[in-house]
Design goal:
The chain is mainly α. The chain contains 23 helices and 2 strands. A two-stranded parallel sheet has the order 1-2. Helix 5 runs antiparallel to helix 14, helix 9 packs parallel to helix 14 and helix 20 packs antiparallel against helix 21. It is globular.
Amino acid sequence: MGEIEELPRRRSSARHSITAQDDAVALEHLGHKQELKRNFSMISMLGLAFAILNTWTALAASITLALPSGGPSSVVWGLIVAGICNLCLAASLAEFLSAYPTAGGQYHWAAIVAWKSTSRSISYITGWINVSGWVALTATGGLLGSTFIINIISLLHPDYEAKSWHQFLIYIGFTLIALFINAFSTRLLPLFTKAAFFWSLTGFVIISITILACASPNYQSGEFVYGDFINEVGWPDGLAWLLGLLQGAFALTGFDAVAHMIEEIPQPQIRGPRIMLYCIGIGMITGFVFLSCLLFCVNNIDDVIESSAGPLLQIFMDATKNPAGSVCLLMFPLVCMLFTSTTLMTTSSRMSYAFARDRGLPFSYIFARVHPGLDVPLNALLWTAAWVVVFGCIFLGSSSTFNAITSASVVALGVTYAIPPTINVLRGRKMLPPNRAFKLPGAIGWIMNLVGISWTILTTVLFVFPPELPVTSENMNYCIVAFGVILLIAVVTWIFDGRKNYKGPLVVFEGLEKGAVEGVETVLEPATESDSTTKAAMA
């Protein structure tokens, strides 16, 4: 009986072994060895992706962006518009991910589908923009988390006068915790991201039910929640409503995280695209419901916008009329920010590691190392953490400069999302292998690509607009300056370093089975020993 019971286990172990070999061989064909462990399951990777988006929390924390610029209608329907457009953009990238599942993501895909004469430069600049965007985005986790704590103090102690160094110290605390978990608990990260996923969904349900129950029967009307328009920013009404879309765009940024973590999940070409789409779909649904609940419970819009305790805590107070209860509810998004800070650092470090592996960063040989004992790219982690601390020091000197950097991170990531599908569209959507696991058919593919690209162009323009008129030095949007610096760094490093040392991704094909590739160097090799072993085991 013991042998009979053991047989299914052996078969399961053999299947896992075959899958691992197949994944390693596929990665070798994309020019890289399997160095990181594939420890993540479908749920744990979805947890990581959703922890980074954390849509309902991000929407609640940034609700003051849209309330004066479009009002509740912009808050609620802006999320739906942003969600649909981001789904189109994510589906466009999911095609690339299913064909070429590598941690390099956008810069790797751009290299493969671009024209041979410009492939290296496009890939290099895309990589620099993506690395910069992820490093800067990592700072937003600590920023929002520290803001929540300052808001709690302001609510419980009305005479408290917040200083920038108070928030800086809390921000550094978030950063150090995220660094410690990533560096020394990498084997527990899948469990950590699962916990993040279920904690976030639990918080969403509990908060929604609690505030609705406490606010009953004093709700705002459905007409107010879904149709009220407010314009306090001075721009024409149509443009003001469009500027309100930025809240939804911000709350759905970062869905390419699964691409940069793709070398740590089995069957990446199948699971990766699903996770990329699932996290946006879940974010849209939870965000729409949560925003609706918040707006039904609002007493006065101006109080929410101007509250020293922050918009989310003010709405909790409107609903519960109890400071202690409001603080307890805020514990859910606060802990979510700890999860977000950690997973942002995880993803950013993998992006930097992947680009260094292709010799895209200065001192690439240092940042491309995987620590043999910890099984993580430790130097890339330290690189990310160091920049997050630098951004914190900038916050001490000028919060507007810090905000410009974090805004530029959203613009930077959005630009990289559009580059591979734009090139593919310009080349007739013929640059991806026809046998890829995820494929948008015919006209649907064209429509989704064009919608996603158009959305990127629109939000890039909107993100650099001043938020209100008249424009002064205090309310000026310096995001354009920060993004310009990112572009300048990318171009200058390409001129003095990249064009000499950056070779771009190396792709190994057996008979070019995957399809036409012009942009990167390809190597034709016979089947490797690992290929033969895998095929024999499958037989």
